[in-house]
């Protein structure tokens, strides 16, 4: 770093006056990092004043080094709350408040202090009566997480007065409250979103944020110097993300992981509750995944222990864009596989401990927007229509919707999900089908997966798995 400018970045993860917020200082030689951290965190004198008052913080050291892929080290030291990153200028490796602090270090902090640091979005669902229910949801990549965080209700729902409020799109810190409920804050102050695929049809709220005060990373550029990426519109870029004259033979114009950075306050669905120092009360926790078959559209866990088992064994089928292989089952516990700061079996036990201390725990659900029919077509319309499922989930949390008991969880009854105004009504019998033979194979695979973690797997999860196996037959 000799000869470079040193930037000292004091920052706060979470509302500056929140008892749930945590502090950090990043030293960096990258002005790009400083500009991004200004949007992504509460950075500056207020954070510095709280650091001086409290006297402890996460210590982060970042240097771009020579940007040599063979000399790239991103290191975490949970016991000393320290992060060191060398040789990378990329977002998650360089903006140390994000994944490094808010998930990897914070998950360890949370275990020590009795809370949860999770890879989850937070949304508020407002019904026509003006009542808002808050939901936290974890999804692996390519499962529609950002789209759900900024969901726009279907026209018929908007006409009735339904609204969806964005509290966070990526990270959620959950703390037990004095009333026996879980309260959540979004530790971030901005969005660091994937650009490709973001367009007027997929996520108009995200697009509406990006006309000013935004940073674009590794996107293409049009002939009038505007950012561009695949899925944005029908224009042709002039230069690609490497600054070369665009040539389709060189691959996509924008890097597949190109990004936009923008303040959360720029989002049309932004909720003022994102700055509530006490957080928002969570009514439901949702785990999702991408499965063409087997997993139903929505399933309610029988209780907290079953919900932890569902989260611990959640799985998605890979897409060609992600791995080069299609349909391979990849298990990603709580969508935390790249981010958990300690042994997963101990992490699941921590989840069980948190639940045991709550008198009013959130209900836990699993969703799957991606079931396909015999011709390989998606059965469920997805996007804004996912609110129809969220409506049932919220109603279940208020004991106002019917459910059918099955060996693997509770499903909506036949007419519990509103479909009346859909032009094409999906086949709900296929979306909610429970294939006993398929589930027997799935439970066998889950048993094998848990065995990889040895004797530390909580006995409560193993007992519940055995009970489900017996019930399925």
Which features would summarize this protein structure in a list?
473 residues; alpha+beta; Phosphoenolpyruvate Carboxykinase, domain 1; Phosphoenolpyruvate Carboxykinase, domain 2; 3 domains; 9-stranded mixed beta sheet; globular
Descriptive notes:
The protein has helices spanning 31-40, 45-54, 91-94, 97-113, 145-149, 155-160, 204-208, 304-312, 320-323, 344-356, 386-397, 428-431, 436-451, 459-472, and strands at 7-13, 22-28, 42-43, 58-63, 73-77, 82-86, 116-118, 121-126, 132-138, 163-168, 172-176, 182-185, 190-194, 214-217, 220-221, 227-228, 259-263, 280-288, 298-300, 315-317, 329-331, 363-367, 403-406, 409-412. It has 473 residues and is an alpha+beta fold. The protein folds into three domains: 7-113, Phosphoenolpyruvate Carboxykinase, domain 1 (3-Layer(aba) Sandwich), CATH 3.40.449; 118-189 and 274-472, Phosphoenolpyruvate Carboxykinase, domain 3; 190-250, Phosphoenolpyruvate Carboxykinase, domain 2 (Beta Complex). Strands 7, 8, 9, 10, 11, 12, 18, 19 and 22 form a nine-stranded mixed sheet that branches. Strands 3-1-2-4-6-5 form a six-stranded mixed sheet, with helices on both faces. A hairpin with a 2-residue loop joins strand 23 (403-406) and strand 24 (409-412). It is globular and about 70 Å long. It starts with 6 loop residues before the first strand and ends with a helix. The model has no long low-confidence stretch (mean pLDDT 96).
């Amino acid at each position: 770093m000799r000869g470079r400018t040193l930037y000292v970045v004091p920052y706060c993860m979470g509302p500056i006056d929140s008892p749930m917020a945590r502090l950090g200082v990043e030293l960096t030689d990258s002005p790009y990092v400083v500009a991004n951290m200004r949007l992504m965190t509460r950075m500056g004198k207020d954070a510095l004043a709280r650091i001086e008052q409290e006297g402890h913080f996460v210590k982060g050291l970042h240097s771009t080094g020579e940007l040599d892929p063979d000399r790239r080290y991103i290191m975490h030291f949970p016991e000393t709350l320290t992060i060191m990153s060398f040789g990378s200028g990329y977002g998650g490796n360089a903006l140390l408040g994000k994944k490094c602090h808010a998930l990897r270090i914070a998950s360890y902090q949370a275990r020590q202090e009795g809370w949860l640091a999770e890879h989850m979005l937070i949304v508020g669902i407002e019904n026509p009566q003006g009542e808002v229910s808050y939901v936290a949801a974890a999804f692996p990549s390519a499962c529609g997480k950002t789209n759900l965080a900024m969901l726009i209700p279907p026209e018929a729902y908007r006409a009735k007065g339904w609204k969806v409020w964005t509290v966070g799109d990526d990270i959620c810190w959950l703390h037990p409250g004095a009333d026996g409920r879980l309260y959540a804050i979004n530790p971030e102050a901005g969005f660091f979103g994937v650009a490709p695929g973001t367009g007027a049809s997929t996520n108009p709220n995200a697009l509406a944020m990006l006309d000013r005060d935004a940073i674009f990373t590794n996107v293409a550029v049009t002939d009038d110097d505007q950012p561009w990426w695949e899925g944005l519109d029908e224009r042709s870029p002039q230069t690609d993300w490497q600054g070369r004259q665009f040539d389709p033979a060189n691959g996509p114009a924008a890097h597949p992981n190109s990004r936009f950075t923008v303040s959360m306050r720029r989002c049309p669905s932004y909720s003022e509750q994102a700055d509530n120092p006490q957080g928002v009360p969570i009514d439901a926790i949702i785990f999702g995944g991408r499965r063409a078959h087997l997993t139903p559209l929505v399933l309610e866990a029988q209780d907290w222990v079953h919900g932890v088992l569902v989260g611990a064994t959640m799985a998605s089928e890979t897409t060609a864009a992600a791995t080069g292989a299609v349909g391979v089952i990849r298990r990603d516990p709580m969508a935390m596989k790249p981010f958990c700061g300690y042994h997963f079996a101990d992490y699941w036990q921590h989840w069980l401990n948190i639940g045991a201390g709550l008198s009013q725990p959130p209900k836990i659900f699993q969703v799957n927007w991606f079931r396909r029919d015999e011709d390989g077509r998606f059965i469920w319309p997805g996007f804004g229509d996912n609110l129809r499922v969220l409506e049932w989930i919220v109603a279940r949390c208020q004991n106002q919707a019917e459910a059918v008991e099955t060996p693997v969880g509770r499903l909506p009854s036949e007419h519990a999900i509103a479909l009346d105004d859909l032009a094409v009504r999906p086949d709900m019998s296929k979306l909610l089908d429970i294939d006993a033979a398929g589930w027997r194979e799935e439970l066998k695979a889950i048993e094998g997966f848990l065995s990889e973690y040895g004797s530390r797997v909580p006995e409560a999860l193993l007992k519940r798995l055995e009970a489900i196996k017996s019930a399925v037959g």
